[in-house]
């Protein structure tokens, strides 16, 4: 009886450890951006080029995130989860798939993934901003750098 109880405890412990390890693996996969071999910009350069009109800077986060931190000065907000994201983006750039488009998200994970997807979809000048709005391994991010933000205007999306 005691032997069976020890085996049960051992299997429960092994199962619990496996669940924890699996959870960490999923978390890390979601937080580590995929490789993007295209151009990248720091948040300072993205801001400067967006304000100068040299690049279309797209904040691809969600409305809830825009409300939380604001939208970077010079950026356009376009939720990447929209069903019509690519047609909306194509409209932003007036059909020019070679236009310079920089993508920013919270921490650089979604922007890297979307940069890859848009490149595969035929956009030829996609630029990733890997620091994101909140910072990442690439740098402190837009907010902590102190770059200007504007309040999110729900009617502008």
UniProtKB/TrEMBL annotation:
Highest rank taxon of the organism: Bacteria
SMART domains from the UniProt entry: RHOD
Occurrences of domain Rhodanese (ranges): 51-151
Cited Pfam families: Rhodanese
Full protein name: Molybdopterin biosynthesis protein MoeB
Source organism per UniProt: Ruegeria atlantica
């Amino acid at each position: 009886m005691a032997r069976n109880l020890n085996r049960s405890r051992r299997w429960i412990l092994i199962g619990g450890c496996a669940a924890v390890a699996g959870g960490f693996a999923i978390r890390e996969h979601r937080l580590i951006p995929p490789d993007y071999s295209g151009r990248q910009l720091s948040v300072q350069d993205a801001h400067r080029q967006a304000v100068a009109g040299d690049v279309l800077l797209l904040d691809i986060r969600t409305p809830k995130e825009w409300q939380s931190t604001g939208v970077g000065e010079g950026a356009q907000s376009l939720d990447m989860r929209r069903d019509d994201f690519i047609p909306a983006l194509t409209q932003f750039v007036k059909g020019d798939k070679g236009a310079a488009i920089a993508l920013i998200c919270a921490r650089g994970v979604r922007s890297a993934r979307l940069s890859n997807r848009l490149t595969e979809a035929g956009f030829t000048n996609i630029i990733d901003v890997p620091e994101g709005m909140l910072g990442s391994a690439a740098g402190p991010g837009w907010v902590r750098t102190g770059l200007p933000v504007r309040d999110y205007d729900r009617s502008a999306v």
